[in-house]
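Handout, section 4.2: multi-component inputs.
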Amino acid sequence: MLCLTLGTLAAVLMRAERGAGFGPGDWQALRFTLWQALWSAALSIACAIPVARALARRQFRGRGVLITLLGAPFILPTLVAVLGLVAVFGRNGPLNAALAGLGLPEVSIYGPWGVVLAHVFFNMPLAVRLLLQGWLAIPAERFRLAASLGFGPRQMIRHIEWPMLRATAPGAALVIFAICLTSFAVALALGGGPRATTVELAIYQAFRFDVDLGKAAQLASVQFALAGAAALLALRLSQQVTFGAGLDGTVARWDASGRGHRALDAFWLILAAGFLLLPLGAVVLRGLPGLTELPPVVWWSLWRSLWVALLSTALVLTLSLPLAVMATGKRGAWVEVLSTLAIAASPLVIGTGLYLMVFPFIWPGDVALIITALVNAALALPFALRSLLPQARSLAEDYGRLSASLQITGWPLWRWVILPRLRRPLGFAAGLTAALSMGDLGVIALFADPDRATLPLQMYRLMGAYRIEAASAAALLLLSASLALFWAFDMGGRANAGP
Amino acid sequence: MLDLDELTITQGDFALEATLTVPQGGRVAVLGPSGGGKSTLLLGIGGYIATQGGMTWDGEDLSPLAPGARPISTLFQAHNLFPHLTVARNVGFGLRPDLRLGADGWARVAQVLGQVGLEGMGDRMPASLSGGQQSRVALARVLLRAQPLLLLDEPFAALGPALKVEMLDLVAQLADQNGLTVLMVTHDRADAERFAKDTILVAGGRAHPPMPTQALLANPPAELAAYLGT
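Output:
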């Protein structure tokens, strides 16, 4: 892990010294990266506040499904979502049809605002979940007290909800800001050009088109500093991001039962659900007809993606499990630092570093898939650790003494205690890693030559060649494969897991 | 014989001093105000927290031994069974930590289960048993481990009064049959009177040497009197 993050960075830095100066285009990329991350974070939070509030104070059928759906963008392949957004908001989509019907000018999804739109699509659900946690963490007694004092909605916001938001929203915004800083696939598909190139995308372009390794290395150093600073800040400011445990309750409210408030909440919930579901529905609808006519090269890329995903999963499991168990011991703080490093690392930076390291010895294209699996594992590791750590801690707390008193150590400890007790989070972490790795379009774009493409890269090529029908079918295939992998691992962890 | 010689048990910023001996086969209650260090004493003897000073069992120095290597079985306040393993496996750990028992071993597991009144329940999961039955599973494992010193850190506190008495009687009976030395933490004077001839008073950062329970309770020192409300 350390080798992957710091080692590759060292390779990058050594090369960057010899690079050319920082040109106006590079400054432009830096500015755009910050600009889009800022807008993406602000808009995600702004939209998430009314949605989270509606979820916090309304109980309705399908609420659980909606909350599960809010977790889906996390394992959704980026390009699939982009294709769905293009279908809805693009030139031939329903939005522009409606605008044309009203005699209004057409809007384009390509360019800076398209990038922001896609980021809001991915991160607004995350923001909703973070804020919902904040709402549900307000003690029920406080709402009862407010009701007994006759607070109306206005006082409720002022005395209860606004202080909570002031405590949680900045952290959530910063997490999203940090995530958007390392955006590559979205910028690749919807951005580009001088007005909408992120630093990550600039690294790729310097690498792939200009074949200017010095410049790529220089941009990679900038990116590392940027993402590192943001990740450290976000870690300091944010509460732990959890994956859905404990979001089932609602708070009893007496202040917002009026018809107007109900209609307002319904409006926001329907809007959010539509925003998430319509693009996905579009992918399924457009993809289905083309499924039977997919070219064989797509099926081959699916096969490659599958084994990249499984290799990453195996790597993450063998790394994260000992790390999580170690984190409960005396050297626990180390593990936290390690996982922070991995968050700060961007795939393109690691990719650039690896390229510089292996280039003198082998042709990087030959090891593209292995490197992709490795990098995907490094990127998924912090999330795997996050899902494992709480359980590993309570395992040590509850059963550490019992195990010690019975002298259960070494392999028997793993076999009879650790593995069975950590099965559920392990299954979840494996599913998460497999899905993330399956859908990733990052480092593979740097390395792969045409006959070694993974499914997301193949899909990107089909999009680039304007073979929309085939691209949609490939997207549907990718979506199904990612969800199926996640489901299989997660279910594997749950089945017969016992108490 | 358990011999504590100027033993200091440190837990965070709390320290407990102990100089005392417990004879072989003794049944001793550990009594004192909450937060006085009753559990700390047992955790120190068990090897779960750091200690300084002399601590021997029959002349053997316990300090360098890992918890599981000490001649001790412990029943904790909670979490005495692995909920994901069957009753038989939970008990089997008393014989071998890797559970490679063989036919003989499993036969002995079945036998001790019979001894505690759980015949034929080896394949059940702990969650399907009552609280009292779960305590019996843990006791069956103590028998199989066959270590001379048994530490009870209020393992029956969650049981109802009648069931608790039943379990204490069972422990007393098993301890007599197997010649066990028992240290039992309790905050209930009735438990001490019923179960233990002698009592260690833990208060004011000290674990005092065992005194006859009857005499101690009849004429309690000030700290104990305040706690007992007598």
